[in-house]
Amino acid sequence: MASTVIGEGLTIEGEITGEEEFVIHGTVRGTLSTSGPVQVSQGGVVEADVSGSSLTIAGQVTGNATAQDRVDIQSGGRLLGDVKASRLTIADGASFKGSVDMDV
Amino acid sequence: MASAASVIGEGTTIRGNVRGRGSIEIRGHVEGDVEVDGDVALAEGAGVDGNVRGAQLVIAGQISGDLQGTEAVLLERGARVVGDLVAPRIGIAEGALVRGHVKTEGEAPAPRRAQVTVARRTPERASVERAAPAAAPPEPKAEPAAPKEAVADKSASAKRGAGPPAPVVPALGKARGKKKRAKRS
Fold it and tell me: Which residues of A touch B22 (CB under 8 A)?
């Protein structure tokens, strides 16, 4: 399957654009924009504004999160920034600081 | 795995630098430097505008920048590099294009298999193209065989002398020949 994997130990600084799935085990600083889903795994660090079709956070995200479909902050996940998505779930044990815009 | 292999997918473009531990396979585009302690594989159709550093670099795409490998730099068919190559081992395959300085320096470690390999979009076509030149040489060998047969034919007809041409079916011919001889005698 065509997808991008940022491995553990790898750091990308800059602007990332894509049309596919992103799985982040490493570190991303800058901006991340894709038309596919974005998954920030446990241990993954994103210091960037993120936009994708959906966003699953089990790691640490500092920046604004925009998703066409949904944002899921899983247990152990951490989001510092604003969320803009039509659906948002925050699991028990997740941390989140920011505002939510659900297109009401 | 402490340093899992990373993949930059085909539809992905990175404007910025990529650094860190582990190996990386690039199928998309990077406008910036790539620096890892593992291997780097650049697929056919992929590109990097920047310098690339790693242990073993296997390149089948385009690079505008310098390549430095602590182990090896291998350019495969279809690779286009505008920049310098520096590594203890350097391989440039037929069909790879390079414009820049090439320097083999440093102690070459024992060759090993790369942790990431270059993805080829059309493996079938590539294998056919490679097979074609290899299949060609046997032809000249086959040619000398034909004159031998001709020689054998000549000697056979010489033995038969000025007799009628050899019948198409030997078995029938023999039988006929015997009958004729029998009638004559």
Answer: 7-10
First vs last C-alpha separation in chain A: 35
Give every residue of chain B whose pLDDT is below 70, as ranges. 1-4, 108-111, 114, 119-185
Task: For B161-174, give one letter per residue: b (16+ CB within 10 A) or e.
Answer: eeeeeeeeeeeeee
DSSP state of B100: S
- How close A9 comes to chain B (CA, Å)? 5
Residue A92's CB is within 10 A of a number of other CB atoms, namely 6
Please give, rounded to a whole number of angstroms, the shortest distance from the CA of B141 to a CA of chain A: 47
Q: How far apart are CA A8 and CA A5, in angstroms?
A: 9
Look up the ipTM and state it.
Answer: 0.89
Distance of CA B176 to the CA centre of its chain: 58
Q: Which residues of B touch A38 (CB under 8 A)?
A: none
